[in-house]
């Protein structure tokens, strides 16, 4: 062996060969020119053979077992061991897919993967979904081989055409070199190559000696025994194919030449070329005779290919490991996108849906195809038509055509009958994005970059999702990425719940016309509902074209329906063995007339006839008996639906049996059509309390109107929503089948309560640790522990309750459920990532209960109101970690909270004494902290459904005031955004900025309408005129400008101020403008721009002005710490409001005129009686200046904006008479040293600094002892252990570090916090220490094991700045000066082992005692 070979390292190997079995490994090894010595690897997982083939150093790996998953494992480890591999060759055997006249594939031939216009060389199909008739579902295509390989494959293919292959030469050399291989790896002989007819199965035995030779396929004998090379698509699966009909079906549908079992798993890991020697024909006659020779021919081709690739070409190619890691990271990023895979036109759930038959819908399909092909066409095609006119079939046909042409970007088929995510817009853009990422490598890369920059994009507003996930990635592509328009198909938009969401979707999709790098074509189908037509009217006419399907000539439609009937009735005829010509032209003509132009009628009729079995002709006759006097599409639908339902109730049943069946049908169908999301049979069994088999048998005769899968775990769906409309309409449906919608909802409500009561429990997923994040819980675990029916019940029980009759569901059932399982319910919603729905659900319940007036238990109503406050306060914590509902949520809830007192025994056992909190709920409802810097202003929309805030982070944010959920972030300003206002109709949002511009936005879409420029300094205030025609702005340039919103032009500039204009406001009648500048309030006539007076009296700057709702009073807020009230008519002072200790920066009247609110830099809001001017309340909670306040239109909500970067939502009607334990406040340091601490022995002093170091000083001498370096950001706190053996430091780098203070060495870095760790403290006995972080958690640590003991989440509005541990009590300090005490049970804390699950487990005895105590409490309440 060459001595230089000993110098080879892992990085010297650039080519990988992977062989599935030893029989395939042997010839590849034999093709090596030199065998290299083995190299050590990090893990002894793979078995490698090393050597040189031509000029390339090659790694050969053999798989432990065959199959896709094993190939993926081998590839992953190989790339970890050999980081310089550029590409891979998968060399082995496969089953040939011969095709007469196209691919004359013989045994021993070689098939090489080669990309086509449809696939990347390999296509994966799911063998588990192959049906008896040979139908299957393809689940994915795989990556193309690297360019360097494909270029040389093409080169070698050309050389073979001229000079032939060298395969026989290499085989001969192999056998000469290794004579032991001759017996096994020689050519078996052409006479042993037999291809049998596809419908002829093997007769048994290891060979085909018993098989009939007359059933072989006659093929021309080849002149030479040289193997031929075939290039094309290889099919890969995890199951061996031994069925010729399935094989031929694969060839017909996918054009594959070979089938095998490893390529899918391998190519999913890194790009490679697949080389397969053909050893059988993938039929029942397969045997092992040809396997060795086929493996050898594949190995010989691999060697010949490598022989023509120069070494320098390979070195220039990117390393496969880098591409692999990049691909994995992209996979991870894409997995962050919530999606519904059922939405795609070709999803498994949609596989049985029809396409347009040939020669049908010719005109409309032609028009859509021409639109999709046009380079300068409009971006949207709106196909509209009434129910049942065939819109979805047309959409599916277009999607299939574009998919086959590789130009379908994505598709989303809305479905109200399927429910869930297919019935709303929540996952619309994320699902489209996920599909778009598969359209090209460039798109995938751009989309993944976008997700990486904003990982929480899926939770943001639709506008942000559209721009970040679709518009920006597509805009970054080169002009030649897509040479023809890219098509998106959106079907049944009218089945998307939420008219506002539909409006938003249409507005956003209309912006596709602005894309320059990609021509996006969006096909949208829907019913012509008024709100959809209105939404299209808001889009520029140049952005879309439409087609009215129900206006197509009846002659054309009848012809298409006739073709449809002939096609499907002919299939039925063949299946049933009816004579040719059945059922006859006259019958088909009558059926066409009965359809009345509705394809849904025709499809329903065919399904009804097909499912008749022995009674097929009887069912046909039943349909033909239709009443000739019945006219019109709806009447015809009523008739066929009635006939189908009547047919279920057989005449031979007696009356009692019929009545029983009627009730069973009503119960089952009533549930199916009133569910908000489709459920499978196994879940319906629990909802209805009817055995699965009974449900299936009841619906078995209704396959014509329902999709009833044999798989009990797949959902039952309506074929068409018109059947639901029919069942719920008493005027259309027979009383035996009519579903009373309110009663159906009531029954489902009761079932939901029963399911939840029986199933919900604490720590339902056995997480054990309260520190477990929702994001860390595996989805399969959630699905296992929370069944589909339980998840449904948790999400929808209140919606069903609200739609039921008030008397149906006893309120005591609701009360008992909430008393026993309220926290369990919140935990479950957190686990399924739907906790945000809890706010709306409880609010909806409160609204529902309020409509019942005095007919409900008052205790229930009080509980629900308290529960709403509980959720609002703790939602963000519970959303983050499910089990914190029992920890943080309970700990920091007011003392007299109904929820807290009821579930106090569920609080953490390791907390002996709770921290001091409010006595009862105060005025503060929620704290929002999404802005990253000071919040300057706030304004409500006129309808109260939104409020907007502005900030020095240069953004405008829009919020849902009901839940506190962000609705959008508007970016565009380049400096502080200081002012915001909604137009009177709520359609425009104006923002003014220090960048000297005003921007006009669509508040729901975030679309920038226009930018107004003209001011020469900061914009400080903006306001719309009451009629919405004028926008007025105030600026530091000492002017007020009035803008005409019809032209977006400046109409007037008002001058006269001698200093900055801080604020401007219109009087309610629009006849007066008031502005604040210097120490005065200026009044102006907006019609002339002339001064109307000056109100003087303040002794310092006037910061804000506002009119009372009736226009009689004007309030001004000043830096002189007062609010002055002025009589608008007489221009005289009516009163002075005093009480603030610092500047008053903002003032606002409540819309009902009863309250005046003032906000100050003293961090308080004061509420005054507008009539008596008496102080009613002082709201405290902000830790910084309060810059802006705004009332909701109903006066029930007040929002404040502060320099502490938070927004707070207040209930202005609630008095804040709560008090806290009066403990001392801690003042923050003002210099570069954040904290100091001394050791208990008096020897050392430690200081923490913003320079990222900790310095230890000798106290006696003042000499620096050690400088501790290791933190990567500011050090915020230091603490010595009581025995002086440890020093702990906490930092903005999110870590706590433990040091040896004497030696100055680092002992360990403790990780777990996700933000700055503000402070750290040891217990007096040194048995534990505590760290507090900006991530709003306390973490308790064991200093001996250096591991975490417990985690406690703090409310958003309680961020700690310091803490201390004294006598087993944690004392937490806040910037506001407030202190919180938490007393610990140290025995329970230190004995606690998270792995034992003690904090989560509840003993049966405890559960029984808890249930008994609650039952006793309910009894006492009833008394």
Structural class: alpha+beta
- Which regions contain 5 or more consecutive residues with pLDDT less than 50? 126-141, 1218-1231, 1393-1423
What is the CA-based Rg, rounded?
37 Å
Q: What's the pLDDT, averaged over the residues?
A: 87
Mind telling me which CATH architecture of the largest domain this is?
A: 3-Layer(aba) Sandwich
Q: What's the count of strands?
A: 62
N- to C-terminal distance: 98 Å
What percent of the residues sit in helical stretches (DSSP H or I)? 25-40%
Can you count the helices? Answer: 36
Oligomeric assembly: single chain
Q: Please list the strands of the largest sheet in the order they lie side by side.
A: 5-10-9-6-11
Question: How much beta, percentage-wise?
Answer: 15-25%
Keywords: Repeat, WD repeat
InterPro entries: NPHP3-like_N, Nucleoside_phosphorylase_d, Nucleoside_phosphorylase_sf, P-loop_NTPase, WD40/YVTN_repeat-like_dom_sf, WD40_PAC1, WD40_repeat_CS, WD40_repeat_dom_sf
Pfam families: NPHP3_N, PNP_UDP_1, WD40
GO molecular function: catalytic activity
């Amino acid at each position: 062996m060459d001595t230089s070979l000993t110098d080879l390292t892992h990085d010297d190997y650039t080519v990988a060969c992977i062989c599935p079995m030893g029989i395939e490994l042997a010839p590849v090894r034999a093709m090596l020119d030199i065998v290299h010595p083995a190299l050590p690897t990090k893990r002894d997982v793979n078995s490698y053979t090393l050597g040189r083939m031509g000029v390339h150093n090659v790694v050969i790996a053999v798989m432990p077992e065959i199959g896709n998953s094993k190939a993926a494992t081998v590839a992953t480890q190989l790339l970890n061991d050999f980081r310089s591999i550029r590409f891979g060759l998968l060399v082995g055997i496969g089953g040939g897919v011969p095709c007469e006249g196209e691919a004359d594939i013989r045994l021993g031939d070689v098939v090489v993967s080669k990309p086509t216009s449809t696939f990347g060389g390999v296509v994966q199909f799911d063998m588990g979904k192959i049906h008896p008739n040979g139908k299957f579902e393809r689940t994915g295509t795989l990556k193309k081989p690297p360019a360097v390989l494909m270029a040389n494959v093409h080169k070698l293919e050309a050389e073979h055409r001229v000079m032939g292959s060298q395969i026989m030469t290499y085989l001969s050399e192999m056998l000469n070199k290794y004579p032991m291989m001759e017996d096994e790896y020689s050519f078996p002989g052409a006479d042993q190559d037999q291809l049998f007819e596809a419908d002829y199965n093997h007769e048994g035995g290891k060979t085909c000696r018993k098989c009939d030779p007359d059933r072989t396929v006659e093929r021309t004998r080849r002149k030479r025994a040289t193997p031929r090379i075939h290039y094309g698509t290889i099919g890969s699966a995890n199951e061996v194919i031994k069925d010729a009909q399935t094989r031929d079906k694969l060839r017909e549908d996918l054009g594959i030449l070979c089938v095998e079992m490893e390529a899918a798993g391998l190519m999913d890991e890194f790009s490679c070329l697949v080389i397969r020697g053909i050893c059988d024909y993938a039929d029942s006659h397969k045997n092992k005779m040809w396997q060795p020779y086929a493996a050898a021919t594949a190995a010989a081709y691999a060697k010949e290919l490598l022989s023509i690739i120069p070494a320098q070409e390979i070195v220039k190619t990117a390393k496969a490991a880098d591409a692999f890691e990049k691909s994995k990271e992209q996979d991870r990023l894409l997995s962050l996108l919530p999606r519904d895979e059922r939405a795609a036109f070709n999803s498994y759930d949609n596989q049985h849906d029809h396409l347009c038959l040939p020669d049908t819908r010719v005109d409309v399909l032609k028009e859509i195809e021409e639109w999709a092909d046009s380079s300068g066409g409009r971006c949207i095609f709106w196909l509209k038509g009434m129910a049942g006119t065939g819109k979805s079939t047309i959409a599916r046909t277009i999607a299939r055509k574009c998919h086959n042409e590789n130009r379908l970007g994505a598709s989303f088929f809305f479905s109200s009958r399927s429910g869930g995510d297919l019935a709303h817009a929540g996952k619309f853009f994320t699902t489209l994005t996920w599909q778009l990422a598969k359209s090209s490598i460039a798109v995938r890369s751009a989309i993944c970059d976008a997700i990486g920059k904003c990982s929480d994009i899926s939770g943001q507003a639709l506008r942000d999702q559209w721009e970040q996930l679709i518009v920006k990635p597509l805009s970054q592509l080169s002009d030649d990425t897509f040479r023809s328009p890219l098509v998106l198909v959106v079907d049944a938009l009218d089945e998307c719940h939420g008219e506002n969401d539909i409006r938003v979707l249409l507005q956003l999709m209309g912006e596709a016309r602005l894309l320059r790098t990609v021509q996006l074509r969006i096909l949208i189908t829907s019913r012509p509902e008024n709100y959809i037509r209105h939404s299209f009217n808001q889009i520029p006419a140049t952005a879309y074209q439409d087609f009215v399907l129900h206006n197509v000539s009846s002659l054309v439609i009848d012809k298409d329906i006739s073709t449809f009937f002939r096609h499907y009735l002919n299939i039925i005829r063949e299946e049933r063995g009816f004579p040719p010509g059945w059922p006859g032209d006259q019958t088909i003509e009558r059926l066409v007339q009965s359809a009345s132009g509705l394809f849904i009628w025709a499809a329903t009729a065919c399904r009804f006839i097909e499912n008749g079995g022995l009674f097929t002709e009887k069912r046909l006759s039943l349909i033909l008996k239709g009443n000739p006097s019945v006219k019109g599409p709806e009447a015809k639908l009523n008739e066929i639906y009635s006939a189908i339902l009547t047919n279920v109730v057989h005449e031979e049943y007696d009356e009692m049996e019929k009545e029983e069946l009627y009730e069973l049908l009503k119960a089952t169908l009533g549930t199916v059509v009133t569910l908000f999301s489709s459920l499978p049979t196994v879940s319906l069994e629990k909802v209805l309390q009817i055995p699965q088999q009974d449900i299936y048998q009841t619906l078995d005769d209704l396959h014509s109107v329902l999709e009833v899968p044999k798989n009990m775990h797949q959902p039952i769906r309506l074929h068409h929503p018109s059947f639901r409309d029919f069942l719920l309409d008493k005027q259309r449906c027979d009383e035996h089948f009519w579903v009373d919608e309110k009663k159906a909802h009531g029954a489902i409500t009761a079932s939901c309560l029963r399911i939840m009561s029986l199933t919900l429990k604490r720590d339902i997923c056995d997480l054990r640790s309260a520190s477990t994040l929702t994001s860390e819980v595996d989805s399969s675990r959630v699905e296992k522990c929370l069944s589909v029916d339980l998840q449904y019940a948790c999400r929808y029980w209140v919606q069903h309750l609200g739609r039921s009759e008030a008397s149906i569901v006893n309120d005591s059932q609701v009360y008992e459920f909430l008393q026993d399982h309220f926290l369990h319910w919140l935990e479950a919603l957190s686990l399924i990532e739907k906790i945000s729905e809890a706010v709306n659900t409880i609010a909806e319940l409160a609204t529902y209960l309020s409509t019942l007036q005095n007919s409900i238990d008052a205790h229930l109503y009080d509980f629900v109101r308290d529960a709403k406050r509980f959720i609002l306060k703790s939602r963000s914590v519970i959303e983050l970690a499910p089990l914190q509902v029992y920890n943080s949520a309970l700990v920091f809830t007011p003392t007299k909270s109904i929820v807290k007192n009821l579930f106090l025994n569920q609080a953490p056992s390791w907390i002996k004494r709770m921290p001091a909190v409010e006595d009862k709920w105060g005025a503060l409802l929620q704290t929002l902290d999404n802005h990253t810097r000071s919040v300057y202003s706030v304004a409500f929309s006129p309808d109260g459904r939104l409020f907007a805030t502005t900030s020095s982070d240069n953004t405008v944010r829009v919020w849902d005031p009901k839940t506190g959920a962000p609705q959008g972030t508007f970016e565009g300003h380049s400096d502080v955004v200081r002012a915001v206002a909604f137009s009177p109709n709520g359609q425009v949002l104006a923002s003014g900025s220090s960048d000297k511009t005003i921007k006009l936005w669509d508040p729901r879409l975030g679309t920038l309408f226009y930018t107004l420029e003209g001011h020469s300094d900061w914009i400080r205030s903006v306001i719309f005129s009451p009629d919405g025609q004028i926008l007025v702005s105030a600026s530091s340039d000492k002017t007020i400008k009035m803008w005409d919103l019809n032209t977006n032009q400046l109409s007037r500039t008002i001058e006269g101020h001698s200093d900055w204009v801080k604020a401007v406001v219109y009087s309610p009648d629009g006849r007066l403008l008031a502005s604040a500048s210097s120490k005065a309030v200026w009044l102006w006539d907006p019609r002339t721009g002339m001064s109307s007076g000056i109100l003087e009296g303040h002794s310092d700057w006037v910061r804000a002005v506002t009119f009372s709702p009736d226009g009689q009073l004007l309030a001004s807020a000043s830096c002189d710490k007062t609010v002055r009230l002025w009589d608008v008519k007489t221009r005289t002072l009516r009163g002075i409001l005093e009480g603030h200790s610092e500047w008053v920066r903002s003032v606002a009247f409540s819309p009902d005129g009863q309250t005046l609110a003032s906000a100050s830099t003293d961090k308080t809001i004061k509420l005054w009686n507008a009539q008596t001017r008496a102080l009613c309340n002082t709201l405290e909670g902000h830790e910084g200046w309060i810059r802006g306040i705004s009332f909701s239109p109903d006066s029930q909500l007040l929002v404040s904006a502060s320099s502490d970067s938070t927004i707070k939502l207040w209930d202005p009607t609630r008095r804040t008479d709560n008090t806290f334990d009066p403990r001392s406040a801690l003042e923050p340091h003002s210099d570069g040293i954040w904290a100091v601490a001394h050791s208990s022995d008096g020897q050392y002093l430690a200081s923490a600094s913003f320079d990222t170091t900790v310095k230890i000083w000798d106290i006696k001498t003042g000499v620096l002892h050690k400088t501790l370096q290791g933190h990567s950001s500011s050090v915020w706190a230091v603490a010595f252990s009581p025995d002086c053996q440890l020093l702990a430091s906490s930092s903005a780098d999110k870590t706590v570090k433990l040091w040896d203070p004497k030696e100055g060495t680092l002992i360990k870095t403790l990780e777990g916090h996700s933000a700055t760790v503000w402070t750290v403290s040891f217990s007096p006995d040194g048995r534990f220490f505590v760290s507090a972080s900006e991530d709003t958690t306390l973490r308790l640590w064991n200093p001996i094991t250096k591991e975490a003991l417990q985690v406690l989440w703090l409310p958003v509005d309680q961020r700690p700045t310091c803490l201390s541990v004294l006598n087993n009590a944690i004392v937490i300090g806040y910037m506001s000066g407030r202190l919180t005490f938490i007393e610990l049970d140290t025995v329970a804390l230190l004995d606690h082992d998270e792995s034992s699950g003690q904090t989560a487990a509840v003993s049966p005895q405890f559960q029984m005692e808890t249930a008994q105590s609650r039952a006793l409490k309910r009894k006492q309440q009833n008394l």
